[in-house]
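Sorry, can you check?
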Amino acid sequence: MLKAINRMKRDEKGFTLVELLIVVAIIAILAAIAIPQFAQYRQKAAASSAAGSFTNYVSQLNAEYADTGTVVSKAGTIGTTAVTFTLDPATGAVTASPVVYAVKGLTVTCAYAGGIVTCT
């Protein structure tokens, strides 16, 4: 009897095909959920980075206008895109040209209105 039990233990090595297929299916389901979420997180991170850079340039323009009292134009970069920022002292509006930027390999569009920078 003991020999039969030991022989059965030796013969049962590894996983069955069904067990392996279940594990592969679970991994595939998790990947199908995670990959689109990761893409959304990358886009949000790029937009946040662009908004931070844009806000920094707006602050610099306002500070320079406060110091000099003249219309201010400033060159800078957002991501890898060269941008020209211009402050209109009559309205306090800041315009940027262009408005579409390449940030972290993604395309981001920013706008400045009412003192708020929005990037998508």
